Amino acid sequence: MKLVSNYRENNELRKSFIQLAADIFGLDFTNWHEKGYWGERYIPYSFADGGRVVANVSVNELDLILNRESRKALQIGTVMTHPDYRNKGLSAKLMNHVLAEYEGKYDYMYLFANDSVLDFYPKFGFERVEEYQYSTRVPSDTGRAGLRKLEVPADLKQIEKVVYGRVPVSQSFATANSGGITMYHILNVFPDHLHYSEEENAIVIFTEENSQVQLYDVISTSPVNITNLLPEGEVVFHYTPDYKGLKVHSVPFKREGTLFVKSGVGREFPRFVKHPFTSEA
User: Fold this and answer.
1) DSSP code of residue 246
2) How many domains does the chain have?
3) Using the 8-state DSSP alphabet, how is residue 230 labeled?
4) What SS3 class is residue 50?
5) Which secondary structure element, helix H or strand E, spans residue 143, and what is its range?
6) DSSP 269
7) Do 172 and 229 have their domain in common?
């Protein structure tokens, strides 16, 4: 076996990686790659047995916006090992390689771990972080202006333009340079829940469940007037809202799994925030 990375243009290794992600997590990166959204900021570090990827730890290079300041961040994802190659320490070796490769090059490294591996990441200096989720109640005298349903793939070029030219969804806590991750969500998670506001030039991603609106993202190239976009009733934010004049309520967020963070020297991860759902890898 050998350790390989940056093999996006290697057909054999890329296809093997995509197959492993499909087998382990049910993820399909094929369309995402073919449409050009697998950019240079998504870097898999893998062990390959010949031309077969058997273990992987991926790095997403992005930025965190914290109180209007930009910080370099690395989001770890797609940590996986083929069943035939488990219990050989491959994931640990890849994690140690990534830590050495990026030593001193980030302010924060973080990941979202499922419940089966909660004891794994503290061995590498990661700490659990509690998130908070925000909600608001919109009175009946306000409400969203006419939203047009977007269609994938018909409106994909328009969606791309807004996603890759977006401003952060929040200046308190958000991500930047994470368009590739957001496009994965648009293609694979929310293709039927995309709405466009002509007035705000904004894409609004939401679902309506049990008399609640689950608001996953507001993607725009300039700040929006959120009162033009929110419907009447209870709205639950899947990011950290900081809209001026909007009264919100927060509660500890219970997700499947846990957010783990490894902070750079002299850095402290902010409290009372919710990581934007559409930039989770």
Assistant:
1) -
2) 2
3) P
4) coil
5) none
6) P
7) yes
